[in-house]
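pasting for ref. prot 1 ->
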Amino acid sequence: MRVVVAEDLALLRDGLIRILQAYGFEVVEAVDNGPSLARALNTHRPDVSVVDVRLPPTFTDEGLRAAIDARARVPGLPVLMLSQYVEQLYARELMSDRAGAVGYLLKDRVSDVGQFIDAVRRVAAGGTVMDPDVVASLLARHEDDEPLRGLTPREREVLSLMAEGRTNAAIAARMFVTEKAVSKHSNNIFAKLGLRKSEEDNRRVLAVLAYLQA
Protein backbone atom coordinates (compact mmCIF):
# COMPACT_ATOMS: atom_id res chain seq x y z
CA MET A 1 0.00 0.00 0.00
CA ARG A 2 1.51 3.33 -1.15
CA VAL A 3 1.68 6.20 1.34
CA VAL A 4 2.62 9.88 1.25
CA VAL A 5 3.72 11.37 4.58
CA ALA A 6 3.68 15.11 5.32
CA GLU A 7 5.22 16.26 8.63
CA ASP A 8 7.61 19.17 9.21
CA LEU A 9 9.22 17.80 12.37
CA ALA A 10 12.08 15.58 11.17
CA LEU A 11 12.00 13.19 14.14
CA LEU A 12 8.27 12.59 13.89
CA ARG A 13 8.45 12.30 10.11
CA ASP A 14 11.18 9.67 10.36
CA GLY A 15 9.22 7.87 13.07
CA LEU A 16 6.10 7.76 10.91
CA ILE A 17 8.10 6.38 8.00
CA ARG A 18 9.66 3.65 10.14
CA ILE A 19 6.34 2.63 11.67
CA LEU A 20 4.57 2.48 8.33
CA GLN A 21 7.37 0.52 6.68
CA ALA A 22 7.47 -1.92 9.60
CA TYR A 23 3.81 -2.73 8.91
CA GLY A 24 4.28 -3.29 5.20
CA PHE A 25 3.40 0.13 3.80
CA GLU A 26 5.47 1.65 1.00
CA VAL A 27 6.24 5.31 1.72
CA VAL A 28 6.52 6.72 -1.79
CA GLU A 29 7.40 10.23 -0.58
CA ALA A 30 7.81 12.15 2.67
CA VAL A 31 7.59 15.95 2.61
CA ASP A 32 7.81 18.79 5.11
CA ASN A 33 5.74 21.65 3.63
CA GLY A 34 2.41 22.43 2.00
CA PRO A 35 3.50 23.04 -1.61
CA SER A 36 5.53 19.82 -1.66
CA LEU A 37 2.56 17.92 -0.27
CA ALA A 38 0.27 19.28 -2.98
CA ARG A 39 2.74 18.14 -5.63
CA ALA A 40 3.25 14.72 -4.04
CA LEU A 41 -0.48 14.02 -3.78
CA ASN A 42 -1.03 15.07 -7.38
CA THR A 43 1.95 13.03 -8.63
CA HIS A 44 1.53 9.80 -6.67
CA ARG A 45 -2.19 9.71 -5.89
CA PRO A 46 -1.34 7.38 -2.99
CA ASP A 47 -3.51 4.69 -1.45
CA VAL A 48 -3.46 6.79 1.71
CA SER A 49 -1.63 9.85 3.00
CA VAL A 50 -0.70 10.79 6.57
CA VAL A 51 -0.69 14.57 6.84
CA ASP A 52 0.03 17.14 9.55
CA VAL A 53 -2.65 19.84 9.53
CA ARG A 54 -0.13 22.64 10.04
CA LEU A 55 2.82 22.78 7.68
CA PRO A 56 5.29 25.43 6.48
CA PRO A 57 5.45 28.05 5.21
CA THR A 58 2.81 29.65 7.50
CA PHE A 59 2.11 26.78 9.93
CA THR A 60 -1.64 27.40 9.78
CA ASP A 61 -3.59 24.85 7.77
CA GLU A 62 -1.47 24.16 4.68
CA GLY A 63 -1.67 20.40 5.15
CA LEU A 64 -5.45 20.47 5.41
CA ARG A 65 -5.80 22.74 2.37
CA ALA A 66 -3.52 20.57 0.25
CA ALA A 67 -5.51 17.48 1.24
CA ILE A 68 -8.88 19.12 0.49
CA ASP A 69 -7.63 20.39 -2.88
CA ALA A 70 -6.30 16.93 -3.78
CA ARG A 71 -9.63 15.33 -2.83
CA ALA A 72 -11.43 17.86 -5.04
CA ARG A 73 -9.38 16.55 -7.97
CA VAL A 74 -9.55 12.90 -6.91
CA PRO A 75 -12.78 12.36 -4.92
CA GLY A 76 -12.29 10.01 -2.01
CA LEU A 77 -8.49 10.20 -2.04
CA PRO A 78 -7.74 8.68 1.41
CA VAL A 79 -6.27 11.15 3.91
CA LEU A 80 -5.49 10.74 7.61
CA MET A 81 -4.86 14.13 9.21
CA LEU A 82 -2.74 14.56 12.34
CA SER A 83 -3.14 17.54 14.65
CA GLN A 84 -1.56 18.72 17.87
CA TYR A 85 -4.88 19.99 19.23
CA VAL A 86 -8.60 19.29 18.91
CA GLU A 87 -9.82 21.46 16.02
CA GLN A 88 -13.45 20.65 15.25
CA LEU A 89 -13.49 23.00 12.26
CA TYR A 90 -10.65 21.11 10.60
CA ALA A 91 -12.40 17.79 11.08
CA ARG A 92 -15.63 19.20 9.68
CA GLU A 93 -13.95 20.74 6.63
CA LEU A 94 -12.14 17.52 5.85
CA MET A 95 -15.40 15.58 5.82
CA SER A 96 -17.50 18.19 4.03
CA ASP A 97 -17.21 16.51 0.62
CA ARG A 98 -18.99 13.46 2.11
CA ALA A 99 -16.71 11.10 0.18
CA GLY A 100 -15.40 9.17 3.19
CA ALA A 101 -11.86 7.78 3.37
CA VAL A 102 -10.83 10.44 5.88
CA GLY A 103 -9.46 10.45 9.39
CA TYR A 104 -8.55 13.00 12.04
CA LEU A 105 -6.27 11.98 14.90
CA LEU A 106 -4.32 13.80 17.55
CA LYS A 107 -0.58 13.29 17.21
CA ASP A 108 -0.44 11.66 20.62
CA ARG A 109 -2.25 8.65 19.13
CA VAL A 110 0.81 7.80 17.03
CA SER A 111 2.51 6.54 20.19
CA ASP A 112 -0.13 3.79 20.27
CA VAL A 113 1.21 2.11 17.16
CA GLY A 114 -1.57 -0.45 16.90
CA GLN A 115 -4.27 2.22 17.06
CA PHE A 116 -2.44 4.40 14.56
CA ILE A 117 -1.91 1.61 12.01
CA ASP A 118 -5.52 0.51 12.41
CA ALA A 119 -6.63 4.09 11.64
CA VAL A 120 -4.40 4.23 8.54
CA ARG A 121 -5.82 0.97 7.25
CA ARG A 122 -9.42 1.94 7.90
CA VAL A 123 -9.01 5.25 6.07
CA ALA A 124 -7.25 3.51 3.17
CA ALA A 125 -10.20 1.11 2.96
CA GLY A 126 -12.62 4.03 2.62
CA GLY A 127 -13.65 4.36 6.26
CA THR A 128 -13.95 7.39 8.50
CA VAL A 129 -11.88 7.71 11.66
CA MET A 130 -12.31 10.41 14.28
CA ASP A 131 -10.13 10.90 17.35
CA PRO A 132 -11.97 9.98 20.57
CA ASP A 133 -11.00 13.35 22.10
CA VAL A 134 -12.68 15.16 19.20
CA VAL A 135 -15.79 13.07 19.71
CA ALA A 136 -15.79 13.74 23.47
CA SER A 137 -15.40 17.46 22.82
CA LEU A 138 -18.34 17.44 20.44
CA LEU A 139 -20.52 15.59 22.93
CA ALA A 140 -19.71 18.05 25.70
CA ARG A 141 -20.17 21.13 23.55
CA HIS A 142 -23.27 20.18 21.58
CA GLU A 143 -25.17 17.95 23.93
CA ASP A 144 -28.40 19.98 23.66
CA ASP A 145 -28.04 21.12 20.03
CA GLU A 146 -30.09 20.06 17.04
CA PRO A 147 -30.09 17.70 15.22
CA LEU A 148 -28.77 15.50 18.04
CA ARG A 149 -31.42 16.41 20.59
CA GLY A 150 -33.78 13.71 19.39
CA LEU A 151 -31.28 10.91 19.91
CA THR A 152 -31.51 8.67 22.96
CA PRO A 153 -28.43 8.30 25.19
CA ARG A 154 -27.82 4.85 23.67
CA GLU A 155 -28.06 6.25 20.15
CA ARG A 156 -25.63 9.03 21.06
CA GLU A 157 -23.19 6.43 22.30
CA VAL A 158 -23.49 4.49 19.05
CA LEU A 159 -23.00 7.67 17.01
CA SER A 160 -19.95 8.68 19.04
CA LEU A 161 -18.37 5.26 18.42
CA MET A 162 -19.39 5.47 14.77
CA ALA A 163 -17.59 8.82 14.60
CA GLU A 164 -14.44 7.12 15.87
CA GLY A 165 -14.63 4.90 12.79
CA ARG A 166 -15.68 1.71 14.55
CA THR A 167 -17.57 -1.02 12.69
CA ASN A 168 -20.87 -2.39 13.95
CA ALA A 169 -19.04 -5.43 15.29
CA ALA A 170 -16.57 -3.25 17.20
CA ILE A 171 -19.38 -1.06 18.54
CA ALA A 172 -21.28 -4.14 19.68
CA ALA A 173 -18.22 -5.45 21.51
CA ARG A 174 -17.60 -2.08 23.16
CA MET A 175 -21.22 -1.72 24.31
CA PHE A 176 -21.70 -5.41 25.21
CA VAL A 177 -24.70 -5.77 22.90
CA THR A 178 -25.41 -7.71 19.72
CA GLU A 179 -24.63 -6.45 16.22
CA LYS A 180 -28.36 -6.61 15.54
CA ALA A 181 -28.94 -4.12 18.36
CA VAL A 182 -26.26 -1.81 16.97
CA SER A 183 -27.83 -2.03 13.52
CA LYS A 184 -31.20 -1.09 15.01
CA HIS A 185 -29.70 1.90 16.82
CA SER A 186 -27.89 2.94 13.62
CA ASN A 187 -31.10 2.84 11.60
CA ASN A 188 -32.83 4.94 14.25
CA ILE A 189 -29.98 7.45 14.07
CA PHE A 190 -30.19 7.63 10.28
CA ALA A 191 -33.96 8.14 10.45
CA LYS A 192 -33.79 10.87 13.10
CA LEU A 193 -31.06 12.70 11.16
CA GLY A 194 -33.16 12.49 8.01
CA LEU A 195 -30.71 10.31 6.09
CA ARG A 196 -32.47 8.36 3.38
CA LYS A 197 -31.56 4.76 2.72
CA SER A 198 -28.45 4.44 0.57
CA GLU A 199 -25.12 2.67 0.86
CA GLU A 200 -24.44 1.98 4.54
CA ASP A 201 -20.95 3.47 4.47
CA ASN A 202 -22.24 6.67 2.88
CA ARG A 203 -24.93 7.10 5.52
CA ARG A 204 -22.36 6.58 8.25
CA VAL A 205 -20.27 9.40 6.78
CA LEU A 206 -23.32 11.66 6.55
CA ALA A 207 -24.31 10.83 10.14
CA VAL A 208 -20.86 11.69 11.43
CA LEU A 209 -20.87 14.88 9.36
CA ALA A 210 -24.21 15.86 10.89
CA TYR A 211 -22.64 15.16 14.27
CA LEU A 212 -19.72 17.48 13.47
CA GLN A 213 -22.01 20.21 12.17
CA ALA A 214 -24.39 20.13 15.12
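and prot 2 ->
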Amino acid sequence: MALGPANRIAVINMKSFEVEKYLLVGQRVWQMAFTPDEKLLFTTNGVSNDVSVIDVEKMKVIKSIKVGRFPWGVVIR
Protein backbone atom coordinates (compact mmCIF):
# COMPACT_ATOMS: atom_id res chain seq x y z
CA MET A 1 0.00 0.00 0.00
CA ALA A 2 1.40 3.40 -0.99
CA LEU A 3 1.41 5.88 1.88
CA GLY A 4 1.91 9.00 -0.26
CA PRO A 5 3.30 11.84 1.85
CA ALA A 6 4.72 9.40 4.44
CA ASN A 7 7.49 8.49 1.94
CA ARG A 8 6.83 4.81 2.63
CA ILE A 9 4.93 1.81 1.44
CA ALA A 10 3.28 -0.65 3.82
CA VAL A 11 3.68 -4.40 3.37
CA ILE A 12 0.30 -5.88 4.29
CA ASN A 13 -0.39 -9.49 5.33
CA MET A 14 -3.37 -10.35 3.13
CA LYS A 15 -4.74 -12.95 5.58
CA SER A 16 -4.73 -10.82 8.72
CA PHE A 17 -4.70 -7.38 7.02
CA GLU A 18 -1.97 -6.36 9.48
CA VAL A 19 1.02 -4.22 8.46
CA GLU A 20 4.11 -6.45 8.45
CA LYS A 21 6.67 -3.80 7.57
CA TYR A 22 7.13 -0.26 6.30
CA LEU A 23 9.66 0.42 3.54
CA LEU A 24 11.18 3.87 3.11
CA VAL A 25 11.04 5.01 -0.52
CA GLY A 26 11.22 8.44 -2.16
CA GLN A 27 9.03 11.44 -1.44
CA ARG A 28 5.32 11.23 -2.22
CA VAL A 29 4.69 7.75 -3.61
CA TRP A 30 2.14 8.03 -6.42
CA GLN A 31 2.01 4.75 -8.35
CA MET A 32 3.36 1.21 -8.06
CA ALA A 33 3.80 -1.71 -10.48
CA PHE A 34 5.15 -5.25 -10.26
CA THR A 35 7.33 -6.95 -12.86
CA PRO A 36 5.45 -9.83 -14.57
CA ASP A 37 7.12 -12.39 -12.28
CA GLU A 38 6.25 -10.23 -9.23
CA LYS A 39 9.84 -10.36 -7.97
CA LEU A 40 10.32 -6.58 -8.17
CA LEU A 41 8.03 -3.68 -7.32
CA PHE A 42 8.61 -0.19 -8.72
CA THR A 43 7.27 2.96 -7.05
CA THR A 44 7.12 6.41 -8.60
CA ASN A 45 8.10 9.07 -6.09
CA GLY A 46 6.73 12.33 -7.43
CA VAL A 47 8.41 14.96 -5.28
CA SER A 48 11.87 13.36 -5.11
CA ASN A 49 11.84 12.75 -8.89
CA ASP A 50 12.88 9.12 -8.66
CA VAL A 51 11.68 5.54 -8.87
CA SER A 52 12.36 3.02 -6.10
CA VAL A 53 13.00 -0.63 -6.93
CA ILE A 54 11.94 -3.12 -4.25
CA ASP A 55 12.96 -6.77 -3.96
CA VAL A 56 9.61 -8.31 -3.00
CA GLU A 57 10.98 -11.53 -1.48
CA LYS A 58 13.49 -9.70 0.72
CA MET A 59 11.07 -6.80 1.39
CA LYS A 60 13.92 -4.38 0.77
CA VAL A 61 14.48 -1.30 -1.39
CA ILE A 62 17.43 -2.21 -3.61
CA LYS A 63 17.77 0.85 -5.83
CA SER A 64 16.62 4.40 -6.42
CA ILE A 65 16.63 5.64 -10.04
CA LYS A 66 16.60 9.37 -10.80
CA VAL A 67 14.08 10.26 -13.50
CA GLY A 68 12.45 13.44 -14.83
CA ARG A 69 10.28 15.84 -12.88
CA PHE A 70 7.28 14.50 -10.99
CA PRO A 71 7.09 10.87 -12.15
CA TRP A 72 3.45 9.94 -11.80
CA GLY A 73 2.96 6.51 -13.36
CA VAL A 74 4.88 3.36 -14.11
CA VAL A 75 4.22 0.61 -16.65
CA ILE A 76 6.12 -2.68 -16.72
CA ARG A 77 6.17 -4.87 -19.84
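The CA atoms of residues 5 and 55 lie 22 Å apart.
The radius of gyration is 12 Å.
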